[in-house]
Design goal:
By secondary structure, the protein is mainly alpha-helical. It is 62% helix and 0% strand. The chain folds into two domains: 207 residues, Ferritin; 230 residues, Ferritin. The structure holds fe (ii) ion (3 copies).
């Protein structure tokens, strides 16, 4: 029977449907070729994941912070898959901790150091991410799905998520990089293309071209910036005037207005990716599993922030009117060591576990309002925070010598970080800690079609009266 007409028993697809017989006998990459491509995706995914992570804090645009969190997570997850597949192919994983081509590191360094948001989105989403998906597509087209089936799976799964990244990235570039930015960075974008040409494209399958390369932004090493920048929609970012935890835990208030505080707490969680970015970037030499776990948690925290955004929208409240402060990330990033920051995060997240005051309590508040949306939000927030407590146990408790030691270290570090910041920010004229609560509560009452309760309206406990480092009033992270 000729290959073109080849079928299985009673017409069953041959080769379990992976290929027709003609395809199977005419295509395939050698083990060496497949491995050499995988090594390039592996290195790119690893470094790119950390680049996305590192740029979250000082890059001001909220939506992009969220997208960087997701994209860092996608990449971090696939690093391990690429790595494991290489190990299966008669290749001990030697040399996988260094770049497979010097031009690849220059390319990544250039984007790591891109000086503006415009340059960053152009470099990430118009050059590197498309080069990565182009390589994966080519791999899937040329490889023999039967001979190299495990690689086919790894690449197919990665491509699914990387194409989503690419599609979002195209939109981000269209919204954020105008003609002026393109003109400004035209030479630099050409340099990035030249780098790809010298390495035979990102996957190394094309002829390697001679180009003269002069690095632009990567002539000096990357320096992490820990000040949490926000775009112009955010205002009064040092305001600590409304103590959400004290209100939530006060039994004399009804559950309904508490949902506003829950949404506030959720959306304020933007500051957790902004802080975790600094721990991840400044903690070196950990196994990849550490970075994968931490970046997963970082993405969860970004999700929680967007849950708050959804919550506010459901109440017809414009979140831009609420001071979503940067104080926690600011204090930790600029005044504490990475280890202190991580212990503070751990201490706070452990404080969310007790049923009466923690995540379960927040979920019960939501359930008692019979609002499906707030219930869902708190349900997943709770589930995620349980995972985060586990991640903390795995990575910071062991480093600090045990649970008791970690809690004591975290508690002390947090008091030190917080210091007298409430008064300090006021004295430095960073904020007046204005009470934003009554106006927002009124808006929600209009939405609900009820009269504001004078006692709720009058709420004015700040973070001065009730410091968030008190164990029973833990500020959620
Ligand atoms: Fe949360
Ligand atoms: Fe968390
Ligand atoms: Fe959180």
């Amino acid at each position: 029977m000729k290959a073109e007409n080849y079928t299985g028993y009673k017409g069953l697809p041959p080769l379990v449907g992976l290929h027709t017989m003609s395809e199977a006998l005419s295509r395939g990459l050698t083990v060496m070729d497949s491995v050499s491509r995988l090594k390039r995706y592996h290195w790119t995914a690893k470094r790119l994941s950390l680049i996305f992570t590192s740029r979250i804090t000082a890059m001001p645009v909220y939506e992009l912070k969220m997208a960087f969190s997701l994209h860092a997570h996608y990449l971090a997850e696939h690093v391990e898959c690429f790595f494991n597949r290489v190990r299966e192919m008669r290749q001990p994983p030697y040399g996988m901790d260094k770049t497979p081509h010097p031009s690849l590191d220059i390319l990544l360094d250039e984007v790591q150091n891109a000086p503006t948001t415009e340059a960053l989105v152009l470099g990430l989403y118009e050059v590197i991410v498309p080069a990565l998906t182009r390589g994966l597509r080519r791999h899937l087209e040329e490889d023999n799905k039967l001979f190299d089936h495990p690689t086919f799976r790894v690449c197919r799964m990665a491509l699914l998520e990387f194409e989503e990244m690419e599609a979002y990235g195209q939109k981000a570039v269209a919204c954020l990089a105008d003609t002026a930015a393109r003109t400004q960075y035209a030479d630099w974008l050409q340099l990035l293309q030249d780098l790809l040409d010298t390495m035979g494209d990102l996957d190394g399958t094309q002829p390697q071209q001679e180009r003269s390369i002069t690095p632009v932004f990567s002539q000096t090493p990357y320096e992490y910036k820990g000040y949490p920048a926000r775009d112009e929609r955010f205002r009064d970012v040092f305001n600590m005037g409304v103590n959400a935890e004290a209100f939530l835990l006060d039994p004399s208030f009804e559950p309904l207005p508490k949902t506003i505080m829950l949404y506030f707490k959720r959306m304020r969680e933007i500051d957790v990716p902004e802080m975790m970015s600094s721990i991840i970037t400044e903690t070196k030499e950990k196994p990849w599993l550490y970075y994968k776990d931490m970046i997963r948690q970082l993405w969860d925290e970004a999700r929680h922030a967007m849950m708050g955004e959804i919550g506010f929208t459901s109440l017809g409240i414009d979140w831009k009117e609420i001071p979503l402060n940067i104080t926690w990330a600011y204090l930790l990033n600029t005044r504490m060591t990475p280890r202190e920051r991580h212990s503070i995060l751990y201490f706070i997240e452990q404080g969310l576990m007790p049923a009466k005051t923690g995540k379960q309590y927040e979920w019960e508040v939501a359930v008692s309002t019979a609002n499906k949306l707030s219930e869902l939000i708190q349900d997943y927030d709770w589930a995620d925070e349980v995972l985060h407590a586990r991640i903390g146990r795995d990575w910071i408790v062991s480093e600090l010598g045990g649970q008791t030691e970690a809690m004591a270290f975290g508690n002390e570090a947090w008091s030190k970080a917080l210091g007298n910041s409430f008064d300090e920010f006021e004295a430095d004229k960073k904020t007046e800690h204005a009470n934003w609560w009554p106006a927002i509560y009124r808006q929600a009452c209009t939405h609900w079609g009820i009269e504001p309760d004078p006692k709720v309206l009058d709420y004015q406990t700040t973070y001065r009266e009730s410091r968030p480092d008190q164990v029973d009033l833990v500020q959620e992270k």
